[in-house]
Amino acid sequence: MHSPIPGLDRVMVFLAAALASASLAVPEGWGEEGVQYGQVGTDVTLSCTGSRASSPVQWRRAGAAALPEGSAIHQGALVLPHASLAAAGTYSCHGEDGGLLHAVTLRLGYLPGVPFVSCRASDYENFSCSWTSSVETFLPTRYITTYRKKSLTGEEKRRNKNGHVGPCLQDPYHPGTCTVHGSEFWSSYRLNITEVNPLGSSFRLLDVTMQAIIKPDPPEGLVVEPIPLAPRRLHVSWKYPSSWPKEPHFQLRFRLQYRPIIHRSWSVVETVNLSEVITDAFAGLEHVVQVSAKDFLDAGNWSEWSPEARATPVRDLATAASEETTTGTSLEILAEEPSQAPNPEPINRSDPLEKMAILVSLGIFAFFVLAAVLVITILIWLRVRKHGKDEAKPHNFLVAATHLKALPKAQIL
Fold first, then answer.
1. Rounded CA gap, 301 and 374, in Å?
2. From CA 194, how far away is CA 186, in angstroms rounded?
3. Is the separation of the CB atoms in 276 and 236 below 8 Å?
4. Which of 64, 96, 104, 112 has the CA that lies 20 to 30 A from 78?
5. Contact residues for 223 (Cβ-Cβ < 8 A; gap 6+)
6. What pLDDT, in 10s, does the model give residues 61-79?
7. What does the pLDDT look like over 288-347, one tens digit per residue?
8. Is the Cβ–Cβ distance between 110 and 137 less than 8 Å?
């Protein structure tokens, strides 16, 4: 059956959704009997249940000799104008004979503010959001956390005519956090975090994409070891974070930072491997090493740094004596480094043997180039010389013929 008014069905659906949200946003019961809530700065009225309309009543405040300043009794009810936080407490009304008619505990506070929300994905299958209140309300508070997928496929639209809305599951062991499971890496989501207290509610809508909020956990199992007979080298290895699924199409790349413990600045190296060899360490000095991770395609952010690992490169026995005399000076120079920030540029970590091999290769290449140029030059010279001789032969023959023609005939005979 269709509505005779165009668009009325949509309006009714919207109103029903709004009413459902309102019923969720302001719960009727907060589990506290005999408690009345009021907003700071407004007039608060406390009713005396059980009293007769014409019977005079007396109001008392527990633990106080008098009622708050400016309070008044109107038709048996106690009115507290512009109530402040100091007016909170337990109040009781009594009949003419002093008998207790009713008691109520007044709790005062503020309306909820818009919560601060941030989201992060430690893998590409789930993401979590956390929030904090922007206002100290002094009242019991609850949170309603839901999400909606913004872009739906045709099949999803057929299954969910009102959009794919689901709960962001809150963790009872970590208040202020919720998790969306089974998210899709290339999809966008809208989070609704609603803060509710007995006076009302306020919400924050946050649009997130997995590519923007991906931030892996730090790599695990960091191990740093000296390399025998290599005074300036350290071998570093680590593992993927256990929270990152092992899939070939979702890899991580890594960033390694290291320094001697007496040095204030870091050297930084990036790699896609699970191990690296530091080739410019200081022999005999303890080094601090950390590693972090990021999505291989540069989506999202770098992880936090892993816990530190330390190791000391082996000492070169052949130069140990000379190092003892220069170590003191070197330590003073290193300690005077002013910078405390990591060096974002990768250092030159080439091995001396590699440099020698490159130089030899360049020399051989240059030799062959020069030899080729020399051979070409010789061939051109020989060709030009031969061409010159060929042109000279006809000229000499003509000269001889002219000379014979000029001689006398008798001489010729």
1. 57
2. 26
3. yes
4. 112
5. 236, 237, 238, 309
6. 999 989 999 999 888 899 9
7. 999 999 999 899 999 999 999 999 999 876 555 454 555 555 545 544 544 444 444 444
8. yes
